[in-house]
Amino acid sequence: MKTKNMFWISNKILCNIEQRREAKKTFGKQSEQYKDWNKEVKNAIKNDKKEYLESHLSHIEICNLTHSSREMYSGINRLMRNFTPRLSAIKDKDGKTLTENEEISNRWKEYCSEMYEDNTNEEIKQVESNDEILERIRSEVEWAIKQLPKGKSAGNDEIHAEMIKASGEQGIDIFHKLCTCKKIWIEEKWPDEWVKSVFVPIPKKGDLQ
User: Fold this and answer.
1) Which keywords does this Swiss-Prot/TrEMBL entry list (predicted)?
2) Which residues are within 8 A (CB) of 28 and not within 5 positions of it... i.e. 6 or more apart?
3) 91 membership: H or E segment, kind and range
4) With the C-alpha atoms ordered 42, 45, 51, 55, is the resulting torsion angle positive or negative?
5) Which residues contact 190 (CB under 8 A, 6 or more apart)?
6) pLDDT digit string (tens) for 148-204?
7) Where are the domains of the chain?
């Protein structure tokens, strides 16, 4: 039976898999008959997968050459759908290699906390009236929405940039109200949903840690 992750398997391979199952049932897993069918199935699956990948990559390359960006990225997403990048080790501030999951998680937390730490000197902050600040925030919200890139994956809220842009002035007003609501503006606390992020480490050349 084909699975959604191995849809490229041919009917011939499916027949061979059935023959392998019958050989195992009849002669046992250690029999030559089963071993022969098992070898045949593995080689056929390897070849079919190779042919599928070559064909798919050729299509992606053609899309790139013809500037069909949407179709190209769609093809890449289909190809990478079940790929989960993993980084089994990273280094701390002192260069020590961390391999335990808890240590790696704490290091990422430390790194992100330092990245977004507010080091602004309170003494040099410009004093503005409340109305001026609110108007400035609305213009910043409007600018930020216009700068949202198209064709990108949605975040944890599953809201795409195109949906936000299509909301127009009404959407700007809604996001402006969110930014200036009591919890954020007066209490200076962000909603929990706003502080959730998905980090995908992308190793570069050299030391991957």
Assistant:
1) Endonuclease, Hydrolase, Nuclease
2) 34
3) strand 90-91
4) negative
5) 184
6) 888 877 777 778 888 888 888 888 888 888 777 656 776 777 777 777 777 666 666
7) 11-80, 87-117, 129-209
